[in-house]
Amino acid sequence: EKYNRGEQMNIYLISILGYALLLIGIGWFIGKHVKEASDFFVGNRKFSWQLLFTTLIAANIGAGSTVGVTGLAFRHGVSSWWWIGCSAIGSIILAYFVGPKVWKVAKKYNLYTMGDYLDLRYAHAFRGIISSMMVIGTLALFSGQLIGVAWILDVVAGIDKPLGTIIGAVVVTLYFTAGGVLSAAVVNIVEVVVIFAGFCLAAPYALSAVGGWSGMEALVAANFADPARTAAYFSWNGIGDTVIIGYFLVLVPAFCISPGLVGKIYSAENLRAVKIGTMLNALVQFGFAFLPMILGMCAFAAFPDLKNSELALPTAMKELMPFGVAALALAAIFAAEVSTADAVLYMLSSSISNDLYKTFFKPDITDKELLKFSRVTTLICGILGVLLALWMPNIITALQIFYSLMTVSMGAPFLVGLFCDKASTKGAFTSAIAGVTTTLVLQFAYAGKGLWILNAASTGTVVAVIVMFVSLYIFPNKKVLQR
Predict the structure, then answer these.
(1) CA distance 149 to 165
(2) Following CA atoms 414, 417, 418, 419 in sequence, which dihedral angle do they give, to the nearest 10 degrees?
(3) For 443-453, how does the pLDDT look when each residue is reduced to its tens digit (9 = 90+)?
(4) What is the model's pLDDT at position 180?
(5) Is the model's pLDDT at 120 over the cut of 50?
(6) Shortest CA distance to 312 belongs to which of 339, 293, 284?
(7) pLDDT, position 3
(8) How far are the Cα atoms of 38, 45, 346, 369 from residue 106, in angstroms, in the given order?
(9) What are phi and psi of 160, to 5 degrees?
(10) Residues of 70-85 as b/e, b for ≥16 C-beta within 10 angstroms?
(11) What is the maximum span of the chain, computed from C-alpha positions, in angstroms?
(12) Is residue 44 pLDDT above 70, yes or no?
């Protein structure tokens, strides 16, 4: 039996590493055709709605939506659905309001990044400050994806966290460095197929292993031995109203202003591609949200004493289903983590190379020099991501740092500025400073508690929005951007 289990673990590991080599190979093949910065950053603006859909959904289903949310479901049950549900709501807003509007501006002014837009709409200085903050937050987000890979390899082959994060970083950095957003988009097609095949098979098998929904309810009730805790576990607000409101105020705007997602919108060939590709991504997110929720609850029913809740997903996939299904399911998690990691690397490389280096240090850089610098930057970010992942405790913490920092600093200036000509540079600066300051003060001085039932990040977001709207009347913008 020990021999068989060891042999199975070797096959798990070989299949995942073989899959990783396939992704690298595809990335480098596509990379041979990437000769200009416009190819690297925006895929030469030729993404159909199908390609935009695959690259968006691959970016949105990552470590947070799989390993992280399954860990939330392991602890809190049904209410873990809101993490991905709120992300999907943000994607709807991106599809029909934000995306089409910013795509028109990007096409007219040949924008590559979110920083390009902030520079055009406000000022060099605002772009510099936001881009610098995004580098810090995005490194935290990248580390979260690498932690997800590490947890998979821990369960599958007993590989420790340091080596697991290095393996994940090597895979995604190599294929993204080759071709940027273009190679990532093509690799994402393979990843999306594996992700959905794996998860759609895994959830029914896991549920069946614990006796169906009624069997899971009985096991959960026995594990808690407390009717009130059991009822909360199966309720839609069991995680707490404060947390759910926090998800709404932070994740909904985050998924319609994320520089990585907006950059992918820039790549669309036309407005139809923006709307259809992004909306389909939102609808799939709504449905997918149930899968990690079910898997996490099944894991708690079967393994209530798990040492780390973020091991719930790989453990459930390895122990609650047949070997063949488990191998595909574990490859699906691996695909989810690296597919989001490439979107994160896009944000990092574009922020550093285009928004900071080109803008403030070498404005006359040639297209080929920018491409070369972007590739070197990507490699360096891969190394920094590994170092941060070794320090970060878990995936959800890493993601909350990124989403909170992004939403409170950039949400109001970007969205108000996109739809209102009266938004000014002074207003953008004031809003960002007010939001970030409020969040930091509440986080460190009041243990993350905010006003009323809000948490620190939610309160900071509300303050930033209020300040931005007040600024429209105190110091309105006098320069109108030709859209």
Answers:
(1) 6
(2) 130
(3) 889 888 988 88
(4) 54
(5) yes
(6) 293
(7) 40
(8) 12, 10, 17, 22
(9) -75, 165
(10) bbbbbebbbbbbbbbb
(11) 75
(12) no
Q: At what angle do helices 49-60 and 81-93 cross, to 10 degrees?
A: 150
| Cα gap 148→162, rounded to integer Å | 12
Measure CA 277 to chain center.
Answer: 17
Cβ-contact 152, 333 below 8 angstroms = yes
Residue found by looking up tokens 């549920």 in the block: 207
pLDDT at residue 32 in the model: 63
Q: Residues 467-472: what's their mean pLDDT?
A: 96
Evaluate whether 149 touches 20 at the Cβ level (below 8 Å): no
**Residue 289 and residue 81 in contact, taking contact as beta carbons nearer than 8 Å:** yes
Nearest to 184 by CA among 67, 68, 332, 349: 349
Where do the DSSP E strands lie in 189-338?
Answer: none
> Amino acid letter at 444?
F
Q: Are 300 and 220 in contact (CB under 8 A)?
A: yes
> What residues have CB less than 8 Å from 405, skipping those under 6 apart?
133, 134, 136, 137, 436
Q: Are 294 and 203 in contact (CB under 8 A)?
A: yes
CA distance 60 to 83: 12
Tokens of 356: 């900071």
Give residue-wise pLDDT tens across range 158-171.
Answer: 788 888 898 888 87
Q: Which amino acid is at 120?
A: L
Residue in this structure with the two tokens 């549900």, named with its chain if needed = 85
DSSP conformational letter for 47? B
* Span 238-288, pLDDT tens digits: 999 999 999 999 999 999 999 889 988 998 999 999 999 999 999 999 999
Q: How far apart are CA 109 and CA 119, in angstroms?
A: 11
Please list the residues that pair with 455 across neighbouring strands.
Answer: 449
Distance CA 320, CA 326 (A): 8
Q: Do 262 and 114 contact (CB within 8 A), yes or no?
A: yes
Lowest mean pLDDT segment, chosen from 135-144, 177-186, 371-380: 177-186
